[in-house]
Design goal:
Layout (H helix, E strand, L loop, with lengths): L5 E2 L6 E2 L2 H11 L14 H9 L40 E2 L6 E2 L6 E5 L11 E5 L1 H5 L14 H40 L5 H16 L25 E2 L6 E2 L8 E5 H7 L20 E5 H18 L4 H36 L7 H30 L5 H22 L17 H7 L6 H6 L4 H30 L3 H25 L6
InterPro entries: Rab4/Rab5_effector, Rad18_UBZ4, Rbsn_Rab-bd, Rbsn_Rab-bd_sf, Znf_C2H2_type, Znf_FYVE, Znf_FYVE-rel, Znf_FYVE_PHD
GO molecular function: DNA binding; phosphatidylinositol-3-phosphate binding; zinc ion binding
Protein name: FYVE-type domain-containing protein
């Protein structure tokens, strides 16, 4: 047997002699029964020092082991993976916390002093678990922070200034070109050689306003990168001079009438702005690339859209949104008060409730019902608005469904509280005692006949429910025509819930219902 090259039967690590293998088995795999825990990394150093004849035992400082968890063969488990610790998977104590781990889950090293405390300066390296490794001071500390906000602002301002200068250049070119073309149009209007003169004069004007790029060496469109050929011609943008194609599908450039361009940029100082309507039918147009169109008109279009009043649908939706904010703000207050009332009643059914609190709760409920009714009225008004496009029609349908679900959700908590008679006015303390209505128990209020106020509230609730039922029925009919059958199934369920609630309210009203 070759005793010079031996390998560990567990991890297959090679050693020079048997002595080194024995030390490895004792330290790494825990075969030393005299140790407190399997896999002690300190035993090698201690054994070597004991073999040294010059070794002084009083100078040795061992790592603290009193906090180490004792190994119980067949019972101890790894604190990370939960496997039972044995010689195959190893069993080693974390030098910091003392818990037992398998060999796989003790890969980290930290510096500890003899008291098992963090000591990154004078400590020695020891194995530790992941939790102790990440808990050491400075592990998650951030490094040096440099505030680059000023630099970014500077770069942004430079780019913004460049963009503004570019925009100002395009606007000046645009005004000069438009005014020059209108001047030429007025000069040669009625002339026999109008077409010939306009073509040559406008071409000269365009080249003086904007320096055109040389087109001989350009083989590809500067926007879509498509190669030019017999079917894809080259064109110069009249504002930037860039060479682009005229493909309709790619929309790299467009020939646009001067009248429309002047209307879209009404804030520019055109000399003939008042004549823009007459120029809509004049044979005057300018070819512009999409980049110049975006730079010149996108910002102006956005500003005009923001300044324009909202359409009928969006105006009604804004009102509905404001009402929903009021409902959402009052509903938690009402639900909390109602839950407190139910808790008091559940604890003592014979308890006489405070009439003032009940009256306040009833008034809050009445306010919520009024808000829900107003929300429902705004919904009907929104549905009656004629949509101006398919997009508004889709939005109208979506808002109708969402409002129906919203009202159905908010009306449910308002059904829990019965109406209570308001106290009559009192003139004196004696009259107050005589005229004050009797405070009744909640259990009695629930079984007595309906009051006038309760009948009124139930009627209002019935009106809202019927209106929501009508909205959902109309939506179902529309979806059936559009073959949106999955949404029809969900709406049918909501419709059944509404009809069930309508029958319940109608049964409560009885003869007091609508005739």
């Amino acid at each position: 047997m070759d005793l010079e090259n031996v390998s560990c039967p567990i991890c297959l690590r090679k050693f020079d002699d048997l002595n080194a293998l024995n030390v490895h088995l004792d330290v790494e795999h825990g075969f030393d029964d005299n140790e407190d825990s399997l896999g002690s990394n300190d035993s090698r150093q201690v054994n070597n020092k004991r073999k040294n004849p010059n070794y002084d035992g009083n100078k040795v400082q061992k790592l603290k082991r009193s906090h180490w968890e004792k190994l119980q063969r067949g019972k101890s488990r790894c604190h990370t993976c939960g496997r039972t610790l044995n010689n195959d998977i190893g069993a080693t104590n974390c030098r910091k916390c003392g818990k037992l781990y398998c060999r796989r889950h003790l890969p980290n090293m930290i510096k500890l002093d003899i008291y098992a405390q963090y000591d990154p300066t004078n400590g020695k390296w020891h194995n530790c678990c992941h939790d102790c490794f990440v808990a050491k001071p400075g592990y998650n500390d951030y490094g040096e922070a440099v505030n680059l906000t000023h630099d970014f602002f500077k770069i942004r301002n430079m780019q913004k200034e460049d963009k503004n200068l570019r925009l100002l250049q395009l606007e000046n070119r645009f005004v000069r070109l438009v005014d020059g073309m209108i001047t030429l149009h007025q000069k040669y209007t009625g002339s026999i050689i109008y077409n010939l003169k306009m073509k040559s004069e406008v071409s000269k004007l365009e080249r003086t306003v904007t320096p055109w790029r040389e087109d001989r060496s350009v083989l590809f469109c500067n926007i879509c990168s498509e190669p030019f050929g017999l079917l894809l011609r080259k064109h110069h943008c009249r504002l930037c001079g860039m060479i682009v194609c005229d493909d309709v599908t790619r929309n790299c450039s467009n020939q646009i009438n001067i009248g429309y361009l002047m209307s879209a940029a009404s804030d520019l100082p055109f000399k003939y702005y008042r004549q823009k309507d007459d120029l809509l039918h004049a044979p005057l147009s300018i070819r512009l690339c999409t980049q110049c169109i975006d730079m010149l008109f996108i910002g102006r279009k956005f500003t005009k859209d923001v300044a324009m009043p909202l359409s009928g649908i969006f105006a009604k939706y804004e009102s509905m949104k404001n009402i929903s904010k009021v409902i959402d703000g009052l509903m938690p207050i009402f639900e909390d008060s109602l839950n407190n009332l139910k808790l008091k009643t559940a604890k003592d059914s014979e308890n006489v409730l405070d009439y003032k609190n009940l009256n306040d709760l009833a008034r809050l409920r009445q306010k919520l019902l009024g808000s829900v009714n107003l929300y429902n009225t705004l919904t009907r008004q929104l549905i009656s608005v004629e949509p101006r496009s398919n997009l508004e029609k889709k939005l109208q349908s979506s808002i109708k469904i969402a409002s129906a679900a919203y009202i159905n959700e908010k009306i449910l908590p308002l059904k829990s509280l019965p109406a209570i008679l308001n106290p009559e006015g009192q003139k004196t303390n004696n009259e107050k005692r005589q005229n004050e209505p009797e405070i009744k128990k909640l259990s009695q209020l629930m079984i007595e006949n309906l009051t006038i106020k309760e009948v009124k509230e139930l009627r209002e609730e019935l009106m809202v429910l019927k209106e929501q039922s009508y909205l959902i029925e109309s939506t179902i009919q529309d979806y059936k025509k559009q073959r949106r059958l999955e949404e029809v199934v969900a709406l049918n369920k909501n419709l059944e819930e509404l009809r069930s609630r309508i029958r319940t309210v109608q049964s409560k009203l009885g003869d007091n219902g609508f005739k």
